[in-house]
Write a structure and sequence with these properties.
By secondary structure, the protein is of the alpha/beta class. It folds into three domains: 92 residues, Rossmann fold (3-Layer(aba) Sandwich), CATH 3.40.50; 173 residues, P-loop containing nucleotide triphosphate hydrolases (Rossmann fold); 79 residues, Alpha-Beta Plaits. It is built from 14 helices and 15 strands. Strands 6-7-5-8-9-11-10 form a seven-stranded mixed beta sheet, with helices on both faces. Strands 2-1-3-4 form a four-stranded parallel beta sheet, sandwiched between helices. Helix 1 packs parallel to helix 4, helix 4 runs antiparallel to helix 5 and helix 6 runs parallel beside helix 9. The protein is elongated. The N terminus is likely disordered.
Amino acid sequence: MFFDRPDSGEVSILVHISIDSETEREDPTEFEELALSAGAQPVDYITGSRKQPASTYFVGSGKLAEIQAAVHAHKAELVLFNHSLSPSQERNLESELKCRVLDRTGLILDIFAQRARSHEGKLQVELAQLQHLSTRLKRGWTHLDRQKGGIGLRGAGEKQLELDQRMIGQRIKAINKGLTKVRGQRDQGRRSRRRAEVATLSLVGYTNAGKSSLFNKLTAAHVYAANQLFATLDSTLRRITLKNYGPAIVADTVGFISHLPHQLVEAFRATLEETVQADMLLHVVDAANDSHPDHILEVDKVLSEIGANSVEQLIVFNKIDLIPGAEPHIQRTEAGRPCKVWVSAKTGAGIDLLQSAVTELLAGTMATETLRISPQQARLRSQLYEKGFIEDEHIDELGFYELRVRLPRKDLDRILLQSGTEIINHRITVNEQQRWESNEKATIA
């Protein structure tokens, strides 16, 4: 650290004060989950209410004495506040309580620091920490805050505070330079996907909504997933193939939370650009959580802040296995477009419906036709198989392939234009119909 503070530990006192003047109040249950996710061991939970926060200690003298008594009784090493504290309030509380004090922003930053694994993620977390720390340097080095004079005592002419500020400024500049390079690499990857006409699906949602579990189920990946807040920090991309559509990229991103610290939004802008540039957002919601309507609003607020509110959304209600009687299904708008899908990433129920809904939204108008291609067009046939467009095929007496395909209308028009392929509009014979039906039954079985 850049200044002297008491050593931190895990035995913690949690403090939640309801402020009457606040229109959006923090959730005390979510605060406890945050503390547990950070590795804290809560031994007491102190609550109260005030009309306005006190300027010196945030809490009043009576509540401060109650917190002091709890710290001494439990020999606590850390006091966590479910609020944003000013730098002076944080220092005053530490001076009175004789232990480390963290506010909600500092707690979330600590969780992010523990979870970051990739070089990019560590850079982003360090940037957010430094931006948060830069406002808390004043009075941090009270024993070194005077310039010294006299023979042999003259230094660089800077206070320790000024030195620290300069060091932090230089480090922030270096991190921003590194993140600019990362942003350029991500842009290059997105341009390559656009040239290849590969759609990108970005998983977004409130923290612990099950995004990583759904990501693993969709892509057969094995990214870390746990029942804790902010289990995922590093963005992960995987390629999947959607039936009747073709390849697509799925991106697993960091979860959001109410009153997400502004420093984190800014620091993770390079990662969140995957969301801004996506073709579709899969907004994952914990359907079993009673607060999920508020969580949807919080996620939409952050999406608006980063400029992703105009990207098409498909809401995915997850964890229906925790809701008695809930069944996987697709909800549609009055125009018939999918808008909500109910699934369980844990059991896999409804995943096929989700893929169908995504295909329908990405593909637009679908066409079902029978194409006749020559043996010399085997490459085209291979591409159609690779994208999952072919539902059945047989070879006629002249050796031509007759392919029964279902694919987006725009892809069909392009194939007809580029390859000169013809559509067969002949009447299907009884034998052909029976053969197609038997093939479909065998595929389902």
